[in-house]
Amino acid sequence: MYVAVKGGEKAIANAHALLAKEGRGNPAVPRVEADAIASQLPVLTSRVMNEGSLYDRELAGRAIIQCQGDVVEAITLVRAYRTTLPRFGYSEPIDTSALPPQRRISATFKDVPGGQQLGATFDYTHRLLTEPTEADISIENGGADTAHVDQPRITDILGSAALLEPDHEEPWSDPEPADITREPAEYPMSRAARLQGLARGDEGFLLALGYSTQRGFGNTHPFAGEIRVGEVMVEFDAPELGFAVPLGRIEVTECQMVNQFMGSHDKPAQFTRGYGLVFGRAERKAMSMSLVDRALRADEFDEQSDAPAQDEEFVLSHADCVQAAGFVEHLKLPHYVDFQAELHLVRKLQQEFGEQHADEQEVDQ
């Protein structure tokens, strides 16, 4: 039970004013603008867009500034704004097979059709702090303007040789997509709904769960089949027009993990899939998502499910950083009546404990 704080309006207003002052920082330093955050901190911006479920770089940048870099608070702001937007319908599924990658790597084959494309990555940089410099960067054979080369997905190549499970069941069906933002969670979830929850899930939480599957808490021993980063076209199905209308291009990261499966009584030995697809440049999130996705599919392959990452309700009910933060941070709110009740109870129990021991000592004497 919460007790309203009376007479605290002035204190709250002063706290807001102090927060704004600290957020502005040194007035002699130029104010950070949202477009600077969006363009110079793309990985941070991508996380806010992913967990906020809204693709808008400028808005994510504004939220980061308003929250002074508190990522969870920025995600909360973006989600709150998202609830005010009207829903016109659903876009067409994006075609990631035709994604012209800015970055495309595979850990399964060295010489993949179309070649490896390193793109922009921290993978080969020294983990040392350096002074910021302005330099002319010459990009050769790997920039965004590189001529398009046919780069079939590794999973399609394995699938054509029947070495990888199909990416959909036959006969093909396209049911109405689930929407976990509007419908209460019901377990077990469909895989589509699970993937939505993982895409919105806290990156650190999913990273820890994905790591746990590799350390033996699960049955995931994967290879990075393919990781792609690039822009895809989003189209909106307008029924009154009878055709899809292009809305624009968005940057996405797609990861497909390939995991060995030894076979069962009704399935042959083959490789199986773990899938991750997220907004922006967010490879760690996409990889973590694909690891956990595969772990949550254990029942499909009659595998033992005894690890945290394989427990659907545990994973999805705790992955949401906004819900987690709200539940933890509500402890800062006044609980005066609750505490007084528990304080009275503890004192009473202590008194009874003391009286009981006094009686026992009298009996011993």
Question: Could you describe the 3D structure shown?
Answer:
With 365 residues, the chain is of the alpha+beta class. It has two domains: 74 residues, no CATH class; 195 residues, no CATH class. β2 and β3 form a beta hairpin. α2 crosses α4 and α3 crosses α5.
The tally of beta strands, per DSSP, is: 4
- State the strand order across the main sheet: 1-2-3-4
- Which bin fits the share of residues in helices? 25-40%
Taken in chain order, the helices and strands follow as: HHHHHEHHHEEEHHHH
Assess the beta-strand content as a share of residues. 5-15%
Number of helices: 12
How is the main sheet built? 4 strands, antiparallel
List the helices and strands and how they pair.
Elements: H1 9-24, H2 34-40, H3 42-52, H4 57-66, H5 71-82, E1 101-105, H6 154-160, H7 191-200, H8 203-214, E2 222-238, E3 243-261, E4 270-279, H9 283-295, H10 312-318, H11 321-329, H12 336-364
Antiparallel strand pairs: 1-2, 2-3, 3-4
Helix pairs in contact: 2-4, 3-4, 3-5, 4-5, 7-9, 8-9
